[in-house]
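Just wondering, does anyone understand these tokens?
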Amino acid sequence: MNLTQKLKIAWAKSDGTSIREHTDKLLENLKLLRSLYGEDIEKACPVGLRSYLWKALEFACEYHDYGKLHCKFQREVVKNHIYPDNKKVERVRHNLISPLFMGNIEDEFLRDISALVVIHHHEAEAGNDVEKKVEKVAQEEFSISIPPWHKRLLRRSEYEALEHLSDRHNKPLEELRSFYILLKGLLLRIDHASSNKDIERLEVEPIRDVAKVIKDKKGFELNDLQEFVLKNRDKDLLLSAPTGYGKTEAGFIYLEGKGFFTIPVRTSANALYLRAKDLFGEKAGLLHSTALNFLIEEHRNHLTGLIVDYEYARNFSKALLVCTPDQLFPFVFAYKGFEKSLAILSYSRVVVDEFQLFEPHTLGFLVEGIKLAKKAGAKVMLMTATVPEFIREDLPDFTEKVFDNPKPRHNLKLIKDSVLSENALRLIKEKSQEGKVLVILNTVRRAVDLYDALKKEGLKPNLLHSRFIQLQRKQKEKEIESFFKNENCGIWITTQLAEVSLDLDADFLITEYSTPDSLFQRLGRVNRKGEKQVKEPNAYIFTEDCSGIGGVYRKSIHEYSKGKLQDGIWTEQDKRNLLSHIYSRETLSKIDPKYMEDYSKAKEYVRDIWNTLGLISQESRKKAQELFRDIHSITVIPIYYKDKVEALIQNYKNSTEKEEKIQALNQILDYTFSIPAYMSKDNMLERIKGLESFNLYWLKAPYDEEKGLAELREDPELSLDNVW
């Protein structure tokens, strides 16, 4: 039996897909990728190596699985063991064997670089012992000798081998490394998509004529921000604009073709996805840690199509993917397979929204990630209410522009008292009789305390925070949005959840002071469009006995900036001037040296990784995402719901159909929420049996259906008391 016949018979997958069938699927997706994005990918490829790109990728796709002809592999995947077992050889990874069949490639550089990619598209050991094992398979099973060039690649680790190829073929190492990362990333991208039975193709069609789609569907002309983005899509942009200025539509315009719209908060991502889907239909996707739960809730009657749709999102195959930054940027840590993300970025655009919300160490990771994305070929647009000076300095090659709402929207009244004082309670009662009052507090504990205090006064406030189970939280989010659209008077108490993720327009904002960036985000939830009068105060800030200072908010910035606030009308320029002053290197170095230290250390950490690339690439994606997150959290279910949830777990176990199982899982997830990771030290957690793979825990703490979970240990030294 010749090689061609063997490839048609031997299995590549346990479902019976032959090596030839799987390989042909890769070549089909390669052809699709080149037809849709070939020009962009070529631009991202180093000029001196561009002529090799498509042929090298074709060779890598063709030969990547030939090593699965190995008898040990076939006996593992083929249930009836039609392949005879050669007991003289050990089991060797197929990717180490595949280059045995690449000797007919005439161009030595093409052969060597393609073979290196093939060897390392899965985990690969290196050294003399590996070489000997492959040699034995070559001789005993395939009756051939391992060629010298193959031996050289097997003896060295991945990036040591790349350095060797640089010397051997006289190619500049930096260019060769960029070329190799692109080549390997594209192979991984094509291979993973071709192996996924839920998706038919590597990429959906790109999004075109976005500005026209927005005009036609939304029925309005583009504003100055959106027009600027439309005319400057060929540049990397750094834009400042206040809330309610049409930044979302500007982001969509920038992402024409293929792009990622990243936003830090999952609830905001959900809302943004719905807007994208309304405009672009199935070309838009959603991806974050709880995206599937949200999508199931939105599309309960179309689960079969939903699963396929979600798989396209998980494979980054959507033309416009709304996601949280931790889904895209952990490649900065060079985890195993990071090349795939950079390869996708070579032909993509990225919008990073509200990046000022991050803690300094995460901001440092993000800045380095943006630089690497740009180097890989991506176009990047940053959008924020204001740009810290040190970010501007670290990203100097961005085109920057500021857009302002000419109408002042906010009149501040500073009150030197606690938001729990009698003075505050009287004010909330008075304003709730005049209009819609939004109260935003720094911690869940403080929100619950104020809720109790107002109820004692005979008022009927509403309460929303992150420690309600998903079932209640989703209902409350619908209620709060409906209230601010339709009601005349009343009170909603919430936390930063409203500050960053809900589209609300209150008549009055009452809040305790946090820090200026947070305060100005909160102001975006009152007089949102600037159409209401501002002769009288519409935002009341209580500056004493503020919760969460030292844990949620940096004490140094809180104390210093409090002295810079004053009563009266604040324009967007006023806000920007204050933020620019506080978040300058000079001010931060004086009032909070650790801020800039954390930021700088994070950047240095990433740079060290990339200076020694390949030495820590075993780091897992999960670990990388944890490093990238500001909030380390654990998903829990209150013990209060144990009987209900255990019945649902049994339904989940008994479900046989995929759609039924997903529906059952979604019902379980309705009873979850997240708590800070430090709670695991308090003997309050018990792993839920039957759902070990989902990392869910029973939380042994009192839960109240009216107030959610409020009784958690407060520790001002810990970063973020799950404030949302």
